[in-house]
Amino acid sequence: MNQIASSENASTDAATIEGRAGSASFILTSHEFEHSGANLKLLRPALRAGDEVIVLTASEPVRPPEASWFRVVSIPGASDFTLRSHIPAVCRNEWVVLLEDHALVNKRTLDAILEVIRNKPKADLVVFLGKNLTSVSRWGWAIFLHVFALVWAPLQGPPPFSPVTSAVVRRSKLRSDARLAQGAWELQIIPRIFNSGKIEHSNDIFINHVKPMSLGSALRLGYHNARAGAALQRDLAIPARNVLYEGWYAFAPRPRLIAKALRERMDELPAGTIWRLHVVGFTHLVGNFVGCYLGGGRSAEIASGL
Q1: E-assigned strands of the chain?
Q2: Among 138, 176, 215, 272, which one has the highest count of C-beta atoms within 10 angstroms of its own C-beta?
Q3: For residues 50 and 93, is the Cβ–Cβ distance under 8 A?
Q4: What's the confidence (pLDDT) of residue 291?
Q5: How far apart are CA 29 and CA 25, in angstroms?
Q6: E strand or H helix at 75, and its extent?
Q7: Which domains does the chain have, with CATH numbers?
Q8: Region 196-221 average pLDDT
């Protein structure tokens, strides 16, 4: 049975990591362990010698049914931010492939990841693009586009940013074998590597963002994600004016930017999508303001469970 104590013992030195050249640590973050089943089923036949699979879950400690091929690290009650902060402490291989339980991949995506890291030796980050193949309700589209609009596959050129909840990262670029500060993965590490320019992408490397949404769940998710994110930014000493601008940007400029970027693909979207993005952006603005001045409360845990 793997609990959080066991994850701290899994860190290794850089020499060991570099000794597993080309190998991958597949990290699945999951609020409930059972939700990892779809990606686990896909990963098992795709693994190569030296690869590992680790489920980081907020569930109570569980015993893997087949412990020989994947590990479970349980951090009961943890938020998604907390789960991701443990990545350097639990993985051992040269590459980290991070997925969420609702970020589903397919065999072609896994093959394409291996092709890129084999053929592009200078890359430090392989960007996941996004598709919305399953959660096609009106509000499901709004939540998907709120995050993935500018990396909605297929792209005609390089991605303008890297989603932080799914990524392929060279392990040595984490610069740590210990637990990260909460928010460091999202606000420091992935942006730093992306800005270095040593990135690659492929239209075959995408996640299917499975997040069924109604009006109520979309508004709750937007608010709690924004509140938790704003509080983390303040904890990392990001100025309040920068945090508040991010909330304003999500409400007003970003939906207009998305509409301009997607004008050739609007026929793929439900009518009224852009105004729904403004609504989601407004809840983001409110959550951003509250998190900036009143802290995160339980928003990180609530958002993780939605």
Answers
A1: 24-30, 52-57, 71-74, 95-100, 103-104, 125-127, 129-131, 167-170, 199-200, 206-209
A2: 138
A3: yes
A4: 97
A5: 13
A6: none
A7: 4-128+163-209 (3.90.550.10), 215-305 (no CATH)
A8: 96
